[in-house]
Amino acid sequence: MDGQNRDDIKPGARVAIVQKRHQATGELTIGLVAEILTNSPTHPHGIKVRLESGEVGRVQEILE
User: Fold this and answer.
1) Which of 5, 14, 28, 39 has the fewest CB atoms within 10 Å, i.e. is most exposed?
2) What is the per-residue burial (b if ≥16 Cβ within 10 Å, else e) of 11-43?
């Protein structure tokens, strides 16, 4: 599942994000969602979240 719909992402969900500094390479960081930062219901580049580790990025994939 992609990370473009805010309703699909819940705190505690395991996700793969791309951080701003890794957008060119597409390097993904995996972690648990601590906070959802995007207010709009959808975003074409992925919903922005803060992970429990403190890293911020856009969700590329929601992991089961």
Assistant:
1) 39
2) eebebbbbeeeeeeeeeebebebeebebeeeeb
